[in-house]
Amino acid sequence: MARRSALSIRIVEGRNLPAKDITGSSDPYCIVKIDDEAIIRTTTVWKTLSPFWGEEYEVHLQPTFHSVSIYVMDEDALSRDDVIGKVCITRDMLVEHPEGYSGWVSLSEVDPDEEVQGEIHLRVEVHGSQGGRRLLRCTVLEARDLARKDRNGASDPFVRLRYNGKAQESAVVKKSCYPRWNETFEFELAEPTEEKLCVEVWDWDLVGRNDFLGKVVFSVQGLEAAGQEEGWFRLRPDKSKPREDEHRGSLGSLQLQVRLRDETVLPSPCYQPLVQLLCQEVKLGRQDGQVHLVTLLDETITAECRQEVAVNLVKLFLGQGLVKEYLDLLFELELAKPCEPNTLFRSNSLASKSMESFLKVTGMPYLHAVLGPTITRVFEEKKYVELDPSKVEIKDVGSAPACPPVIRAVFRQLFHRVGERFPQHQHTKFVAITSFLCLRFFSPAIMTPKLFHLRETHADARTSRTLLLLAKAVQLVGNMEPAAGRAKETWLAPLLPALQQGIALMKDFITRLVGMEQEEKEEGEGQPPVPPTTVVKEGLLFVHKTRGKGPVLATAAKKLHFCLSGDTLSFGKSPGAERSGAIALGDILAAEKVEEKSFGSAHVMQVVYVDAGGQQETAYLQCKCVNELNQWLSALRKVCVNNPRVLRAYHPGVFRGDKWSCCHQRERTGPGCDRTHHGVTLQEWSDPLDPATEAQRLFHHLLGLRGTLREKYWELLEPEDAQNGPMGEGVPLPEGLSRLLGVLGDLEQCHRLAQPPAPPAPALLQLQT
């Protein structure tokens, strides 16, 4: 059983942002931080005060996070980027909005006294002394992940304790965000004991005022009942100061969609009854006179959830080897409805959403192979394509044999089903294919290549115009009726000959695509889109040299090409060169970030591993940006998820001279000073299938629809079959629906038994002031 959280973040657009440049404009981008750790950077939108990003992310993390903050920044080429404002959404706010926190949110000013992070380890106790006095004793042990306030990428922290009008201070630990004090302070207990103990952490500065790093406030009265309390306490901002609202509303706003999903994923066997039932329903197919479970689901889920349910179903049936049968059932059910040839599959039904999700899950490598070279050429050559037919001529739209077998099989089924449904409109079966392949897959990827991972940045205005024209041409070819566009957009007239030729080529391509019958069963048809031996991630990384004898450290090159597969992290001098060495995934103990001060460089990660001699070594690898850094960390953590030797703590710094730069420990093999982040990953389309998670999410949706499934069943019955009234009293439910309701009840009971008992109320009250 696994308990985890999934955070879906969509940054749509901004408006009315303040101008930060002398030109009267800004170059805005967003940084997303989870508990003050940057995990996402959007692309920069140049010279605008109303940027559009439209970027979506899903982050998997431990349920113990506290907040997500989105900072809007202005990029500057010659100086430090300016902070425009931020939006902070706490975990409690997300819990109160289970359907998601969305809409326009005003940016607030960044207050240095609220930019706190990290935790402090304290032991607090009340005891009597020999003289009859009672003492309040606080031992300040250590702190971790404090905010970095100095230019060297660290802080000089000290602790100030205040109680009953008196204050005491600890020693200053220079250049560390992971300080260790081990100092004890005593105060004479006041009567009555209603005072508060305030433990503040500050950054000492030689010149100017000290910087506030956070505080913890305790109720001494609560402490008396407990006697002693020890643990790690999260540092809180200072909210006792009055806030000025003069900037509220003047910094602009963001349109956001943020949703938290807390999941308890049970062991896979618990979901087998649900999976087996859904598979059986798909195998049985459509039966006349009966309401299918898939139809009930399509009719009851909301439009907002339909895309998510479609993804869950596609991945579930991919894992079961039944995705072709599932989509074929959807085609049958859709074609059984009253429909016109010219509007077929144009709605946002479960069939359309499932097919769209299926193409993204299984066809992204094919999409990159077909469109990648053209998109790269458009971006790099920056040619302005207006009405140049040579730019929109479609020579093959990708080789038919290169199309994944499972996609060809699904298109073949769709082609035949539509041909049988509309025998008098043979043109329709071609449009049914292109409506998905061109209109819902290729065309959106051309218009927004960053969202399909074809480029790392959005296009500028001129390139966007070129991409729009190319996408429009693909849409017209996909509609297979260029004359239809002539009346609406007369400027397309010069393109009609090229489009007509493109339609002929497209029709020939589809004929070959659906006519490639194979004598034997297509291999891998129902398998995950990314086999274990496939390359998960690769790219050039800069190697920072440190003392050590591991395979990476022994190489003379400063920049190496790394390749992460399902079994090793290998490296060589260039992509095509012979591999210089490799680290087995089973030998990797951690993949974590490195403090910027360690090498004077940002975006450095460390891979902690065991070498051939059994010694622990660390490779320090620098990425080019924060997104590449987090993508590498995410990929490494996913492939090492089942490694039994992973570390629970690590050093964010480096061992230089005779001590660690982070916590100043002098033992090179000593325990780490911060917790590892194995559970923090980014969701990608190429992720291996996780059947238990998909089944859990389907269960969550179905459980919420349990009441409406019955009502919708009787509503969808033919009038003569619903003779006992709208609720069907006295008429038994069909076997499939009856079994489904029973399975949902059993799974609900399993979740109830799996919930951990509520923790006891703490004797020590930590105040939120």
Automatic annotation (TrEMBL):
Respond yes or no to whether keyword Protein biosynthesis is given for this record. Answer: no
The signal sequence is: none
- List the GO molecular function terms: GTPase activator activity; zinc ion binding
Print the keywords alphabetically: GTPase activation, Metal-binding, Repeat, Zinc, Zinc-finger
One Pfam family from the record = PH
In this chain the C2 domain maps to 1-105, 116-233
Report domain Ras-GAP positions.
305-479
A Gene Ontology biological process annotation?
Answer: intracellular signal transduction
Q: Does the keyword Metal-binding apply?
A: yes
Q: Which PANTHER family match?
A: RAS GTPASE-ACTIVATING PROTEIN 4-RELATED, RAS GTPASE-ACTIVATING PROTEINS
Q: What is this protein called?
A: Ras GTPase-activating protein 4
